[in-house]
Amino acid sequence: xxxxxxxxxxxxxxxxxxxxxxxxxxxxxxxxxxxxxxxxxxxxxxxxxxxxxxxxxxxxxxxxxxxxxxxxxxxxxxxxxxxxxxxxxxxxxxxxxxxxxxxxxxxxxxxxxxxxxxxxxxxxxxxxxxxxxxxxxxxxxxxxxxxxxxxxxxxxxxxxxxxxxxxxxxxxxxxxxxxxxxxxxxxxxxxxxxxxxxxxxxxxxxxxxxxxxxxxxxxxxxxxxxxxxxxxxxxxxxxxxxxxxxxxxxxxxxxxxxxxxxxxxxxxxxxxxxxxxxxxxxxxxxxxxxxxxxxxxxxxxxxxxxxxxxxxxxxxxxxxxxxxxxxxxxxxxxxxxxxxxxxxxxxxxxxxxxxxxxxxxxxxxxxxxxxxxxxxxxxxxxxxxxxxxxxxxxxxxxxxxxxxxxxxxxxxxxxxxxxxxxxxxxxxxxxx
Length: 432
Prior knowledge:
Layout: E1 6-14, E2 21-28, E3 34-38, H1 45-60, H2 68-77, H3 85-106, H4 110-113, E4 122-130, H5 133-145, E5 150-155, H6 169-172, E6 205-206, H7 209-227, E7 232-236, H8 243-252, E8 260-262, H9 273-279, E9 284-286, H10 297-301, E10 307-308, H11 312-315, H12 318-330, E11 334-335, H13 345-357, E12 364-365, H14 371-376, E13 382-384, E14 387-389, H15 402-405, E15 422-423, E16 429-430
Parallel strand pairs: 4-5, 4-12, 5-7, 6-15, 7-8, 8-9, 9-10, 10-11
Antiparallel strand pairs: 1-2, 2-3, 4-14, 13-14, 15-16
Helix pairs in contact: 1-3, 2-3, 5-7, 8-9
């Protein structure tokens, strides 16, 4: 059998439902045989396109499509410096597309190539947020009635910026806190009023850790009193609080039995996880900001986390992710691949292939696909009973309609799509 070769690599920009997506299409010299992959780096899409078209494409044209491992390894070191999120996203798009091609050649779904099913469907969690505990609770109720059992919850901190709650007017206000008993009065000159006519990726604001922690604990208490312990709740700290407060927070929320507490510390503060593990049983998820598969290895081997929270495009695709999943299994650590709204349906399909195969799957993040997005991507993974279900189509089981995709070009964004900074009351920047 003659092995198909890479003939061309295309980069497709599309923005259905106001989300910028970067899609890679690898074409072969066999008529009608191609694969698709997700290379979405929402904050930096332009350099990803350049990395593919100017560097990876000329490097890979003419390669056998079956040699996925060799292509990954040689591409990974072709920049000498072992890449970063830009080149890794570029490589991920190609890697996912090659797995898609291999599945089509074998007439098998990718999860079959990885070893077959460990489960029929993958449990997902959805996102709720609001200006008040009651608003969050009502949204939870609606999700539970739809069959969702795992729900991430975030609530506004009055007078302060609140991550994960785009709709919250109170949380988005920037310098309104005037109650000295609740937290510092903002004095910074960094914060400005945003032009409502302009398109900001993430506006900044004022954040203070202790008011945030009080709001979050109040929310958990409300949820458990209202719903009991039959529903699983998750929460994202997003690395915004000092490490010692993170330790206190993990201990304080233990009684609420979270499914997991996410991104408690920044990657620079990984050693603090040893203190958390020694003092509390709150489950910990980490990895969203890692851009190398090697960064999370110490966390796995020392059992400092409970869920691998990697964004598979940021580390280079399915090929490195399946290795991390296998390592996690040996240490009884589960997967929870990053899957926010700015992951394309193709990226979700790649996550799902791993979820269905991996014995140590834990949970999958999910954001509802808009109707325009479903038009662009025929074969979007289906959601039913709080789970994502694979189809039996070969490869990743999903495609892109390029004609429809062209109807949704990228919109101009302030700062090119970069996030504006969040600040403490004194003007100092808050990570990430």
